[in-house]
User: What shape does this take?
Amino acid sequence: MTPPDEYASVRYLVDDVPAAIDFYTSHLGFTLHTNPAPAFADVIRGPLRLLLSGPASSGARATPTDVTGPGGNRIHLVVSDLDAEITRLRAAGVAFRSDVVSGPGGRQILLADPAGNLIELFQPTAHR
Assistant: This one.
């Protein structure tokens, strides 16, 4: 297990903490770390600690009123087989926010959590 001071933490504002927990743990391989109240939870995947802050959490309350929705930032999850992940997630009813995009570094696709926060699934190009 990664020591707490070695996690890279990202906070996502969500409007339904239980739905966010279910999404990340059911579909994207995260495990629930803590869930002290319905206002907040954190999930972990490797060294990434994703803070899921509901409307009553201190993280959400500290957000300025002119920043009310999810932004264009996203977490970036590396996968070994993008096509297999897309098939698996579509079968589970997950909708994608983009088509597959290919570039010199690899292929990617965007999806969103129940609150609209973006997640990028990325398969790097195999180097020969």
